[in-house]
Each structure stands twice: as C-alpha cells, then as structure tokens.
Amino acid sequence: MPRVAVKNNRRMSLRIHSADKALLLRAVAYAHTDLTDFVVRNALQAAKAVIAQAERVSLSERDSLRVLDVLENPPPPNAKLLAAARALPR
C-alpha cells in the first residue's frame, strides 16, 4: 500500500533490534542527552565523513607534482579535443 506524502518531512522511523536500542540508550545516558539528539548528531558526523571521503581526491607527491606541471604547461590540444571544440554551438 503506497504511503501518503506528508508536508512535514521532519520525522524518520527506524526499526532496530532491541539489543541495539538498549546499547544506544546506554550511550545516551552516558552522554546526558536524549536518543534523538544522540542518533542525529552521530549520524550526521558519519554522513559528513562518508561524503568527505567520497569527494576528496588523494594524490601521491609524484602525482601532485605531475598535475601541477600539466596545469602550468598544458599539452597542445589533440584531434579529439579540437573536434569537440568545433562541435560546440556558437
């Protein structure tokens, strides 16, 4: 059965094992916060870390120097690049 769209999209439902919830509640007690704040804060931290890792390019020193060299001394355009440039609308 399809779900009805809601105007307020601030809620999220989770189904977890009771042992996992007990562990979260134990951590919440140590952190002196509530379950929602604890889960959201830590989920956002994890999300930011995943995004940062996925969007970052790490180069070796050799590769970094090669990129800088190509930026400072670009090679002449090849036939495919020239053809692509000619195919662009004016």
Entry keywords:
90 residues; mainly alpha; 4 helices
Describe it.
With 90 residues, the protein is mainly α. The chain has one domain (18-87). 62% of the residues lie in helices and 0% in strands. The chain has four helices and no strands. The chain has helices at 18-31, 35-55, 61-72, 79-87. The longest helix is centred in the middle third of the chain and has 21 residues, at 35-55. The radius of gyration is 25 Å and the shape is elongated. The model has no long low-confidence stretch (mean pLDDT 93).
The largest pleated sheet is described as:
none
- Range of helix content: 55-70%
Shape verdict = elongated
Low-confidence stretches: none
Distance between the termini: 51 Å
List how many beta strands DSSP finds: 0
Mean pLDDT: 93
Output the radius of gyration.
25 Å
Report the sheet-strand fraction.
under 5%
